[in-house]
Design brief:
The protein has 84 residues and is mostly helical. It has a domain at 10-61. Helix content is 55%, strand content 0%. It has 3 helices and no strands. It starts with 9 loop residues before the first helix and ends in a 23-residue tail after the last helix.
Length: 84
């Protein structure tokens, strides 16, 4: 990875470097590797991340771009009152 300093603007070069590192996921990887993670916990985390990515892709693939509109009552079919 390379960031060039132009016209002695070091602050902008640092901002650009941080942005590139953030987009590459380096900071997240450092955070994850800071402490030991048991293999079972690592497997669970990776599975949850994959599910999250999958849901995100499905959401983008829908024609409306978002969740489908909900129709009617959220608890349709449920009794209105309890009988004893």
């Amino acid at each position: 990875m390379e960031v060039r300093v132009q016209s002695q603007n070091v602050e902008k070069a640092l901002r650009d470097l941080k942005k590139k590192l953030q987009l590459d996921g380096v900071f997240g990887e450092l955070k994850n590797r800071r402490f030991y993670e048991k293999p079972s916990v690592k497997k669970k985390r990776k599975r949850l991340e994959a599910q999250k990515r999958r849901r995100k892709l499905l959401k983008r693939a829908r024609p409306g771009g978002g969740s489908a509109p909900r129709s009617g009552n959220g608890n349709a079919g449920a009794p209105l009152h309890r009988t004893t």
